[in-house]
Amino acid sequence: MPPVKKLLDQVREKIRFKHYSLSTENTYISWIKQFITFNDERHPLEMGAAEVERFLTHLAARRHVSTSTQNQALSAILFLYREVLAVDLPWVDNFERSREPRRLPVVLTILEVQKLLRETAIAPAPIGLIIHLLYGTGMRLMEAVRLRVKDVELMRREIVVRDGKGGKDRVTMLPESLLEAMRAQLVLRREWHDEDVCLGKANVWLPDALAAKYPGAAKEWGWQYVFAAKKYSVDPLSQIERRHHVEEKQVQRYVKKAALAAGIAKPVSPHTLRHSFATHLLQAGYDIRTVQELLGHSDVATTMIYTYVLNKSGKAVVSPLDHL
């Protein structure tokens, strides 16, 4: 049997060849390790549908993982067979993924958003600005922290979201109320960039294809992260020391702190602000297609979930108790 370590090296090479994120790489490697360990460290070529089904059943029945986590494990295993081992999987057609239960998103009221945003004064710069942007633009957390200087259009009051979910680009608004804060952030960021150039550490991370096509782009001002980390860090893949973007965990932590300080009982995360952005736009009378474009949804059916939050699904009835 080929050594497992060599197999995992092949998985890493394939993931990097396909330009998947480092977090996806770590997640897939972890699930593949667990799959092999669960099956007595047999090589995947010696296994098939029965072993995969047993592993996924174990995750659900013994470890009580969520449907999305179970499907994530399956995606990792399928990547291993299809992309790395190049094995035909006739059993996949009969293999049903677990279905996500349909749940309504958690949405804050406008008053709750106001309270939460006021509490972001506890967050260090630029975390507070990022949190305001999440609600003001509908961006996902990773889209916000990975925002590049060239994609902020101050004159047009626009932000271009590059390579969003599904690899799509889109345009969203830059709120008027955040213009001055964004200008100040860019001024500070330019000062840092000038220092980085002097120290020879201005090379920002770029996707491999772009880095190869435009070798000098990594040092250019336009490609720098708007929300860069204060300290340098070593890139785990290239081992180059440079300035990365703000950690998403920082934003998550301060959103939770602000929600707690504001006395909000609902479970609140950065993504809650995106849900609230969409719902409040529909509440204000904007049409669903416009909201769909701003969110970057491929299918309007995905955006329709917010109409249920608003009770605009044709089921807005008055309780008989209110007629007594």
UniProtKB/TrEMBL annotation:
Belongs to the 'phage' integrase family. The keyword Kinase does not apply. It holds the Pfam family Phage_int_SAM_4. It comes from the Bacteria. Signal peptide: none annotated. GO terms for biological process: DNA integration; DNA recombination. This is Integrase/recombinase. Residues 103-319 form the Tyr recombinase domain. GO terms for molecular function: DNA binding. Keywords: DNA integration, DNA recombination, DNA-binding. Residues 1-85 form the Core-binding (CB) domain. The keyword DNA-binding applies.
